[in-house]
Structure prediction request, 384 residues.
Amino acid sequence: MKLRRTKEFIVDIMQQADLVLLALCCAATGFGIVMISSATRYMDTWKLVIVQTCAAILGIGLYFVVSMVDLNELAQKWKWLTVFNIGFILLLVTPLGMESNGNRAWLHFPGFPVNVQPAEIVKLTFTIVLAWQLAWLKKNWDLKSIRSIAFLGVHLLVIIGLYYKVSGDMGSALVYVFIFACMAFVAGVAARWFILGGAAAGIGFFLLWEEDLIPDYMKARFTVLFDHSYDVRGVGWHQTRSLLALGGGGVTGQGLFHGTQTQSPYSGSLPFRQTDFIFSVIGEELGLIGCLAAIGLIVAIIIRCLVVANSAKTPLETYICVGMAAMLAFQLVINTGMCMFVMPVIGLTLPFFSYGGSSIVTLFLAMGMVSGIQKRSRPEWLRE
Prediction:
């Protein structure tokens, strides 16, 4: 009897999930774990591979759990979610906050095997709150009005302003901006507000640059994009080595576990090879074919999110799916562009491929949300 109930429970959980999306996520994650094992082979330890695998298993479990959550009901708690977002970010200023590579963007909980990046978790709750706001404003106010834009703008500026002030992590802050822009566009915010916002951001950046209010290291990351010979041994080192790795792979690559830089015992040969520059590892060892396969998997996941968005039963669910797709798309473009020396290094990882326990768990949570929306969009007789 217990075995039968357990079987029925497992079958019921499986029916709640989008197995197509799960298969794509697992394929990308498995691909990523193989590349992480190659990228960390020079360390002579399996620790990072084990951590990533355990995080992926946890993420898959949470994928099924989140698939059963009705986001329309959860969004009604938007005030508590907003408090959570602000409070979780503020934990970075407590003794739990940890600085790495110049950014105070991680939390270290004693006894916990991995560090937690609040920006990753808050992306999800931020998206839910924003989706609720867009749906409410569209129903009760005019999304094209000044007061609606002000309401949305204050929410965005509070979150990214607070996060950047506390952490100094500009890369993650920009992800929030892109998620906001895509969701607002789909919801129907007038084009003129995007034009005004883009113009204001451009002018603001120019004035900050001219007034020398932008940190020198950040200026250098932009300068080197236009002059690859600028500070090759300093700020340009990461991307120069990345280009060499990608170029050295050619079409078919040098072979898994045989990349010249990937397998170099010198950590500076290809810096951050298991995180920011995992795409370069793929290019060196598996060539253009491997790079296209990795990009193809992420694009397929993005398309699946958009397909679910198109069939969602409520506007709120549509906006959430678009937000998740935007998150993946932005990180894909920035990370691959960073590796190809056409985008500045801002610390954004390649979704599902780069090492990061909290990142991979968050990605599966995000896709679990999309999975639940897909399930609820089906007719009742197909859900059972």
In short: Residues 2-383 form one domain.
